[in-house]
Amino acid sequence: MDTRNKALVSAFLFIVSWPALLSAGPAAEQSPLTDVYKAGPIRLDPDPAFGKSTKWSLLFFNPFCDLAAAPDGSLFIAGSREHKVFKFDPQGNLVKSFGQKGQGPGDFNSPGDLSVLDGKYLVVGEYALANRISLFDLDGKFHRLLTTKRAPFSPVALGDGKIAYLVNSYSGQGDEAKITRSVVIRGIDGPGETVVAEQTFNTNAIMVGSQSSVNLGDGTTGGMYVAATLEGNLLVGNSLQAYLEIFSPEGVKLSTVDLGLEPIAVTKDYIKRYKGYVLGEMKQDRRYAQGQMKEFLKKLEDASFDHLFAGFLPLYREILVDAEGNILVFKKAECLGDCPILIRVFSPQGRFVCETEIQEGRFGLAVDPRRKNMVFGRDGLIAMVEVKDAADYELRVIRVNYGPVPR
Q1: In a domain, 222, yes or no
Q2: What is the CATH number of the domain that holds 231?
Q3: What CA–CA distance (Å, rounded) separates 290 from 374?
Q4: Best exposed site among 41, 211, 382, 383 by fewest CB in 10 Å?
Q5: Best CA proximity match to 57, nearest among 112, 10, 4, 6
Q6: pLDDT digit string, tens, across residues 126-170
Q7: Would you say residue 158 lies in a domain?
Q8: What is the pLDDT of residue 31?
């Protein structure tokens, strides 16, 4: 229940002016992204020219909005509540939208998890428990529907016509329940599935009575993470382990990346503080002030949170790959609530580069694998953010420069 998991604003960002990059005069030749990360914190200062004519606040009303960038700079955003995918040009202007709520070819049921396959197909997953993944061409024309043996989560395009995704299976009941997350690779031209990694975790739900439960996400139990490298290989992480594995599109293990992260032990005091934080957040929600919801909250106060945790906290909460192939690992902090966004940067070969931070300023940026809300492109960071000072809940898109701020 991280406050960063609140509704966000769909925002395309040029990443800001680090002091070392803010010299007067004509813009210098663009530096490698590693120089950007080494220069200091990344501040979410938007370029006002980006998407200036786009009415962002009228497009997105739900934080579950994923995005992907095409090779030509076009941007795609999936709106889960709208059951559509929106296409924007590189300047942030809306080009078109496609899709509608339904079960047929080209329809969506809460679309999400966008990625681009081999530079020509948009891969679209769905948040609903549907055993399918949709492919469209980059003009938004429906191409193919892929059926899967189990509901796929976090699908990501690799190379050579291959995609990867997570599938879940469950065992046990109540507080003894376990969830096994498997990483699967398959081709778009065949139904065969290859499992390349698998791990069993504690359940991430608190049982409140025999029929009710509250899901608290993977922030306590740990989880599996997938991303594609620049070469189209598969990057796999288990947030309870201090390394990542890289597989070929055929499922052959190629290498391992040592993250250099030290585990943080979970103590009784931390569990107590975590429970207090969760209950405090829920008590601020007016839905829990009366009737059955008030009784639900009372039962949750009496429930044990011990089973949510392994012996150590998860080491990170997201992995991404930027436009130059660098691997970005978003560290999991021990703090509760408004925690810093810390990133460990590794080269495409897996060598440690530096650690940096994203400073949100007047925006809120959720780091959550359930929504891929950031793309670190060659020209800027593209991200989904929440406007903190808006009079009402507002999602919008901004762009942040890697180089000097335009004058």
Answers
A1: yes
A2: 2.130.10
A3: 38
A4: 211
A5: 10
A6: 987 789 999 999 999 999 999 998 999 999 999 999 999 999 998
A7: yes
A8: 60
